[in-house]
Structures are given as structure tokens and as C-alpha cells.
Design brief:
By secondary structure, this protein is an alpha+beta fold. It contains 4 helices and 7 strands, in the order ββββαβαββαα. The chain has one domain: Pnp Oxidase, Chain A, CATH 2.30.110.10. It is globular, with a radius of gyration of 17 Å. The N terminus is likely disordered. It comes from Callorhinchus milii (Ghost shark).
């Protein structure tokens, strides 16, 4: 399983015989997002490894997208990183999504909390980031 923790995400796994990196060898991946990537933990004096510095772990399978999903992904990526639109096409870049099968939240002592994909997708997003000036 692939494990990474940064917002600029590249999904890879290694072919030990050629030392080349391919997602095709195993499409299973985990993605960790943490408040340590913001100023929140530093402002509150939390060690980035403390459970008080909340993290969410998503795991599932990586799937190539096309059609309207690909158009949406391109717009989202290029709006944040416009220079990427001019990267060489012959490098074989493609857009993918994580088909989430498991979600764990570590936000306090006592272990992780499990959230089902159904619970996750049923929540109506709110603009907490805009309301919370503490982030």
C-alpha cells in the first residue's frame, strides 16, 4: 500500500526489477491529511505527531478518470497550478481519483475513529475554513 502525507500528491509504487515506479503494480493507496500542514498545531503548541494535531486517513483504490470527471480534475488542478497545463504531454500524465473504502480519524487520545464512506459522502460540506480564522 502506498502511504503519503502531502497535498501535492503523486501515486507510485516500485517495480524492484527495473527500479521504475508504476501505480499499475498495486492500485491500493492511503492518503493522510493533517492539521500539521497548516499553522493550526503550531499556534496551539501541539506537536505535529500528537493526536491533538488531527489527521484523517483515507484508503482505497486509485482509478483513472475520464470524461466529465477528468474535466473537473483538470480545472481543479490547473486553477491551483496553472504552469502544469504546459507540462510535456509525452510524459504520460493522467488524472485519477481515490475510490475510498476506509476512513480513519485520529483527533484525540484513545485510538482512531472509523468513518464509513457512506457517512463521509452523506455529510453536507460547510465553509468552516472561512468561518474559522484560527486555521
Amino acid at each position: 500500500m502506498i502511504y503519503f502525507r502531502y497535498f501535492t500528491i503523486i501515486l507510485i509504487c516500485i517495480n524492484w526489477y527495473s527500479h521504475l515506479w508504476f501505480i499499475q503494480c498495486n492500485p491500493t493507496a492511503s492518503m493522510v491529511m493533517t492539521l500539521a500542514e497548516t499553522d493550526y498545531c503550531r499556534k496551539h503548541g501541539y506537536d505535529p505527531q500528537s493526536p491533538l494535531c488531527c489527521r484523517v486517513i483515507f484508503s482505497g483504490t486509485v482509478m483513472k478518470v475520464n470524461g466529465s470527471e477528468e474535466a473537473f480534475a483538470k480545472d481543479a488542478l490547473f486553477s491551483r497550478h496553472p504552469e502544469m497545463a504546459d507540462w510535456p504531454r509525452d510524459h504520460g500524465w493522467y488524472f485519477a481519483k481515490l475510490n475510498i473504502t476506509n476512513i480513519w480519524v485520529l483527533d484525540y487520545f484513545g485510538g482512531v475513529k472509523t468513518v464509513t464512506p457512506e457517512e463521509y459522502y452523506s455529510v453536507q460540506p460547510q465553509s468552516q475554513v472561512q468561518k474559522n480564522t484560527d486555521w
